[in-house]
Structure formats: structure tokens, C-alpha cells
Amino acid sequence: MFRTRADGYDVALIRTHEDRWQLPKGWIEDGESPERTAIREVREEAGVDAEVVAPLGRIEYWYTSTYDVEPVRVHKFVHVYLLRYRGGSTADHDHEVREARWVEIGEAERMLAFKDERRMVRLAREALKGAS
Predict the structure, then answer these.
(1) pLDDT confidence band for 130 (50 / 70 / 90)
(2) Are strands 2-5 and 21-22 parallel, antiparallel or unpaired?
(3) Domains annotated on the chain, with CATH
(4) Which of 18, 31, 44, 108 could be a cystine partner for 103, CB 3.0 to 4.6 Å?
(5) What is the rounded radius of gyration, in angstroms, for the C-alpha atoms of the chain?
(6) What is the pTM (predicted TM-score) of this model?
(7) In sequence order, what are the beta bridge partners of 104?
(8) Residue 119 class from Cβ within 10 Å (0-12 exposed, 13-18 middle, 19+ buried)?
(9) Cα separation, 86 vs 89, whole angstroms
């Protein structure tokens, strides 16, 4: 999720309850496309409306979910898209995140907790550089 500024681009990041900075992401709902999921999750977690510009790639990882009584090992695939800001405010994020904010793209890459998400921001920066 990016927006244009006079000297470059900002990226919308979320801070989780585990105190990590991440890109907004979530589960694909029944009958929903990965593109639609990306738009919905950015709206829910970061509070902003967006449109898909281009696919960036896919992140794959394992984690242990503790939502149920018994921990469950989860294999997750995240489809990442370059999304353009259309409106809304990061102050309008949902309860799943502690904070959402706009961050300059280079700073966003440094803040992100996960290597694969930093790689996606680099890919976004290259795509935006090629588009200007």
C-alpha cells in the first residue's frame, strides 16, 4: 500500500499487539480472490482504501496459531500486491492492530520485522521507480 509524496512514496504499516511492524495481510475468505483479500485487509487493518496496481510476489511461512485451546501449526501463503492509496485514514484501523501509520518507503523497509516483507517493499520501490 503506497501513497505518493512530493519527494517519493509512503507505505502503510501496522504495529501488531506483539509490537512488530508488518504489512497488512490476512486470510482469503470463501469465494474471495487474493486481490480482493488484499484490498479488504488493508481497509480493515490499516484503515485505508486501495486499488491493485500490480502483483509483487508471494510469501510462504509456517507459524503456530494459539487461537484455539490446542496450538495448531499453520502453513500460510501471502499474495502481495502493489496497492495505491485511494482514501481513508490510518486512524480508522480495526482492533486487530495497535497502530497503523504512513512511513517513508525506505524507513518502512528498515522497520518491518520480517525479511520477506522487507523484500516486498524493495520490489515495490523498484516497481514505483520504473513507473515514474
Answers:
(1) confident
(2) unpaired
(3) 2-131 (3.90.79.10)
(4) 108
(5) 14
(6) 0.90
(7) 10
(8) middle
(9) 10
**Going along 66-121, which residue ranges are E strands?**
72-88, 99-104
Q: Which helix (H) or strand (E) holds 17?
A: none
pLDDT tens across 37-89, in order? 999 999 999 999 999 999 999 999 998 988 788 999 999 999 999 999 999 99
CB of 38 closer than 8 Å to CB of 116: no
**Interatomic CA distance for residues 14 and 90, integer angstroms:** 9
- SS3 of residue 56 by DSSP: strand
